[in-house]
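User: quick one - fold this with iron/sulfur cluster bound?
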Amino acid sequence: MSSPKQLETFRLSLQTTVGELQAEISVPTSFIPISDIVPLMRSLGEQALAMEEDHNRLAGHQISCHKGCAACCRMLVPVSPPEAFALQRNIEQLPVPLREKILTRLSSVKKTLEQSGLLGKLVQISETRSQLSDEDMEPVNQAYYAQRLPCVFLEDEVCSIYEFRPAACRELLVTSPKELCQDIAQNPVVPLSAPFRIATVLSLMWAELTKGPAKLIPLPVALDWADRHAKENQSTQTGESLLKMGLDKILGFLRQNS
Ligand code: SF4
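Assistant: Sure. Structure tokens for the protein plus iron/sulfur cluster:
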């Protein structure tokens, strides 16, 4: 039996545009791969987003998103490299029937993307050595959304991996009427602004560790990317140093938005 990991606890206080985020978080004292810090970073992002939601509610703007509405699960989801590794591990641990269903759907989505000429582009994005801007991604996002492909993790319009869905999915909430989400390319949807974006934070951490670009990997090719780059997730850091690096990136976001 493996011995439980030793943890070190820190109290955080982050000043965001919607108030002070206080949190007590524990990280392993041992050396861990960056994918192990993903749940912790996502939970910090969710706490910040909950503050933003409260702020909007007080201003009279309700969140329209609810269980069973998966209109936005037809968009191209960007996944940070550490999340791609974490997702791969999460999927390996799913019950076999669900895992097989997901992998079958994934292979059919990839076939459709190949036929429409988008698969190669998504793989190219996942392997790029240059920084891609939102403007660079816009035509690809539009072309992907035009196909209205349901995410491979959707089961009866509910996310089957809700507990470990990517940060980008957690952060996409809207205050505009839910009917508008039926066609986000045409309708003026109003997304909630997040104090900081955890997928970007994790992507910047990965860039610092690998001395590469801060990339975001399209979800349909994230598992293949994680397979090809498995060795890179073998490099480890102490939990504390990964936490510090993550907080440094979050502070960068907060400074920009202040
Ligand atoms: S991972 Fe879940 S929440 Fe995200 S797009 Fe897919 S089904 Fe929707």
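One thing worth noting: The chain is about 45% helix and 15% strand.
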